[in-house]
Amino acid sequence: MEGSFTRVDGYERIWELTCPGPPEEVGRVRRWTRDVLHDSPHPDDAAPIVSELGSNALVHSASGSPNGSFHVSPHRSPGTVVLSVTDRAEARPSPTSRHRTRTTPTGAAWAWSQRWPTAYR
């Protein structure tokens, strides 16, 4: 796991992290996001969004393959946090079937992102 930090014009902070494909990396990305955004207004909201997007990258793309990886980049400027997760775009070699239950996660990042703009203005 490698990370970097850039400051643009003294106002914007951009962090970048590239992670290997094992599922345990999602937990590391969640903690890392909380750490780098610790002085922003809502790091505890950003962390599960990145976690969900990272999980989606591993499940639905080649990022979850043995040699896969995914890239995370939180961007912060005054009043704004942008979360970006980039996966290896090609589809996984073999499709997976998932049986839904009452507790199966289904788009938590989308639900949180829809709540975020109106909850914190």
What would you say this structure looks like, in words?
- The chain is of the alpha+beta class and 121 residues long.
- It is built from 3 helices and 4 strands; from the N terminus they run E-E-H-H-E-E-H.
- It has helices at 25-36, 43-60, 108-119, and strands at residues 2-8, 12-20, 69-77, 80-86.
- A 4-stranded antiparallel β-sheet has the order 1-2-3-4, covered by helices on one side.
- Strand 1 (2-8) and strand 2 form a beta hairpin.
- The termini are far apart.
**Largest beta sheet: strand ordering:** 1-2-3-4
Structural class: alpha+beta
Please outline the major beta sheet.
4 strands, antiparallel
Strand content: 25-35%
Order of helices and strands: EEHHEEH
Integer average pLDDT: 76
What is the oligomer described by this structure? single chain
> How many distinct helices?
3
Shape: elongated
Number of E strands: 4
Q: State the separation between the terminal residues, measured CA to CA.
A: 34 Å
Poorly predicted segments = 117-121
* Helix content, binned percent: 25-40%
Provide keyphrases for this structure:
121 residues, alpha+beta, 35% helix, elongated, four-stranded antiparallel sheet
Topology:
Blueprint: E1 2-8, E2 12-20, H1 25-36, H2 43-60, E3 69-77, E4 80-86, H3 108-119
Helix pairs in contact: 1-2, 2-3
In short:
With 121 residues, the protein is of the alpha+beta class. The chain has three helices and four strands; from the N terminus they run ββααββα.
